[in-house]
Amino acid sequence: AQKITQTQPGMFVQEKEAVTLDCTYDTSDPSYGLFWYKQPSSGEMIFLIYQGSYDQQNATEGRYSLNFQKARKSANLVISASQLGDSAMYFCAMRGGWNTGFQKLVFGTGTRLLVSP
Amino acid sequence: EAGVAQSPRYKIIEKRQSVAFWCNPISGHATLYWYQQILGQGPKLLIQFQNNGVVDDSQLPKDRFSAERLKGVDSTLKIQPAKLEDSAVYLCASSLDPLAGVPERDTQYFGPGTRLTVL
């Protein structure tokens, strides 16, 4: 079965600093995808970044980068130069392959990030 | 490009009443998902449609929940009768092509959600 673990219930960071949000996963599928979503207080889930299990390079999208360590089964999100608008819940999610329900997203419990001025 | 639309945004009902939620996916997206997000948890998939057929409804409480996507576009999720534990945010998402295996086509995009409170 697929499982996503986010061990940090809350994180604090000062504006303009970088922050790393942890995510570890477990799956028996050789092919899978890892996603990070942001959920502001308004409730909408906003797609941030994607990493495929066969991707050789770590994914980057603007200020977001994904530190993918396949052997450790970790997919940490790094936000550089934090902004006040980054305050939100952040969810790590995994899409399995054919063995575990292709296209089904399994989410972690989330990390609440608070950016202070 | 318009995003995923959901209505209503908020709903308060008493237990044993019925409620329905509506979702309109991004134009051209073949796959539609309904998730339930209980406070303090990540979203949990309830049902997945590919066009107007059900792909996965293994976690849908079928004794009280039902969903349909009649013309392969918009969808409704119904709860009848509601229980206190159904209080949650119900999120709809859509993706272009779930079998593509490339992020541009299989990433799921979410709507704003419907916050349901059952009293």
Structure, explained:
The complex is a heterodimer of chains A (117) and B (119). By secondary structure, chain A is mostly beta strands. Helices cover 0% and strands 50% of the residues of chain A. In chain A, the strands form three sheets. In chain A, strands 2, 5, 6, 10, 11 and 12 form a six-stranded mixed sheet that branches. Chain A has a four-stranded antiparallel sheet with strand order 3-9-8-7, with no helix packed on it. Chain B is mainly beta and 119 residues long. Helices cover 3% and strands 46% of the residues of chain B. Chain B contains one helix and eleven strands, in the order E-E-E-E-E-E-E-E-E-H-E-E. Chain B has one helix at residues 103-106, and strands spanning 5-7, 10-13, 19-24, 31-37, 44-50, 53-56, 65-68, 75-79, 88-95, 109-110, 114-118. In chain B, strand 4 and strand 5 form a beta hairpin. The N and C termini of chain B lie far apart (37 Å). The chains are: A mainly beta (117), B mainly beta (119). The interface between A and B is medium-sized, with 25 and 28 residues.
Descriptive terms for the model:
heterodimer, A: 117 residues, mainly beta, 6-stranded mixed beta sheet, 4-stranded antiparallel beta sheet, 50% strand, B: 119 residues, 1 helix, globular
Outline the secondary-structure elements.
The complex is a heterodimer of chains A (117) and B (119).
Chain A: E1 3-5, E2 10-14, E3 19-21, E4 24-26, E5 33-39, E6 46-52, E7 60-61, E8 64-69, E9 74-79, E10 88-95, E11 105-107, E12 111-116
Parallel strand pairs in A: 2-12
Antiparallel strand pairs in A: 1-4, 3-9, 5-6, 5-10, 7-8, 8-9, 10-11, 10-12
Chain B: E1 5-7, E2 10-13, E3 19-24, E4 31-37, E5 44-50, E6 53-56, E7 65-68, E8 75-79, E9 88-95, H1 103-106, E10 109-110, E11 114-118
Parallel strand pairs in B: 2-11
Antiparallel strand pairs in B: 1-3, 3-8, 4-5, 4-9, 5-6, 7-8, 9-10, 9-11
- Low-pLDDT segments, ≥5 res of chain A: none
| Number of E-state strands of chain B | 11
List the uncertain runs of chain B: none
- Helix tally of chain A equals 0
Q: In sequence order, what are the helices and strands of chain B, one letter per element? A: EEEEEEEEEHEE
Radius of gyration of chain A: 14 Å
Instruction: Count interface residues per chain for the largest interface.
Output: A-B, 25 and 28 residues
User: What portion of residues of chain B is helical?
Assistant: under 10%
- Calculate Rg of chain B over CA atoms: 14 Å
- Which series of helices and strands of chain A comes N to C? EEEEEEEEEEEE
Overall spatial form of chain A: globular
Biggest sheet features of chain A: 6 strands, mixed
Biggest beta-sheet profile of chain B: 7 strands, mixed
Helix content of chain A: under 10%
Mean of pLDDT of chain A? 92
Distance between the termini of chain B: 37 Å
Outline of chain B, from the CA principal axes? globular
Q: How many strand segments of chain A?
A: 12
Structural class of chain A: mainly beta
